Amino acid sequence: MVSVKGKSLEGLLTEFRRFYPSTEFKKKAYITNKEIFEKSGEDPEKFWASYASELHWYKKWDKVLEWNPPHSKWFVNGEINVCYNCVDRHIKNGGRNKAAIIWEGEPGDTKTLTYWDLYREVNKFSNVLKKLGVAKGDRVAIYMPMIPEAVIAMLACARIGAIHMVVFGGFSSEVLRDRINDCKAKLLITADGGYRRGSLIPLKHDSDYAIKDTPSIENVLIIKRGEFPLRIKKGRDVWWHELADEVDPYFEPEPMNSDDSLFILYTSGTTGKPKGVVHSTGGYLTGVYTTSKLIFDMKDQDVFWCTADIGWITGHSYIVYGPLAVGATLFMYEGAPDWPEMDRYWRIIDKYGV
What we know:
- This protein is an alpha/beta fold.
- It has helices spanning 23-28, 34-42, 44-52, 82-92, 115-131, 148-160, 173-183, 203-210, 240-244, 281-294, 313-326, 344-352, and strands at residues 2-4, 7-9, 63-68, 71-76, 79-80, 99-104, 110-114, 139-143, 163-166, 187-191, 194-196, 199-201, 219-223, 237-239, 256-257, 261-266, 276-280, 303-304, 329-333.
- It has twelve helices and 19 strands.
- α4 (82-92) runs antiparallel to α5 (115-131).
């Protein structure tokens, strides 16, 4: 309860009503199929292999699991590319004109990318990375607002075999610096800025402070989000939109060993120094593809919104890789959930049919 000028107003942020799924909805849900759970326990390797087989592999694995506690290798000697499975595969299966990303910025600007749009943007971004000297196995730091180019950057890294390391855009320049130095990132991808609660977040400005003490960084690739004031260091800083006009429109996906690194993501540091956790390619993609289908009951015709940030593992898995692997439409929102009004999320859900 809150009081305004002596009058009581009932708080509406707590909802006690329950809305249960319809009979028709429940019939289509995976939870009604008890065999899925039973089979996963009876023969786990067969279970995971069945879902991995729905993905595109350049070379099929020799063995599903090599388990030497605490170490494991999934889909041993298999070759796969995550970007191909999240983008190209759907183009070839007739999904080129379906929305891949629907995005709304905090100020209200919007953008929709079809799978064909996403394919073209990722290919260009991949060639921009190549032009900047990024190759398979190199680490790339990403310090971005929640805009489609952040997803495009991640997919481009996966396409060429570079290892992305995303840092939450709300973290300080010191946090960014420490993570770059720890993983020895070669390139930093950032934006001129972003929006949060009506304020401008000067990401490029913060990046400049971070990389004063990061000797591994060779270039800074800048995405233009708005008209944010910034400084350009000649010979180091480059604009994405300028380089994009100079590169080839296609980049052949790099076949990756299933156990090759896909990305590094750092722990929060609440229990000590943040640790860079390496996620491998084949096992991770199979995991998020399967859980998106079975846990979230995600279908390729769904508009799916995970309200996390891509700076967290939930965002990696269920904003980017899970929905795109399934062939669904992912929704992204840039700003705060209560800006400019408390009902921002509900308006978004209603507007886009989430």
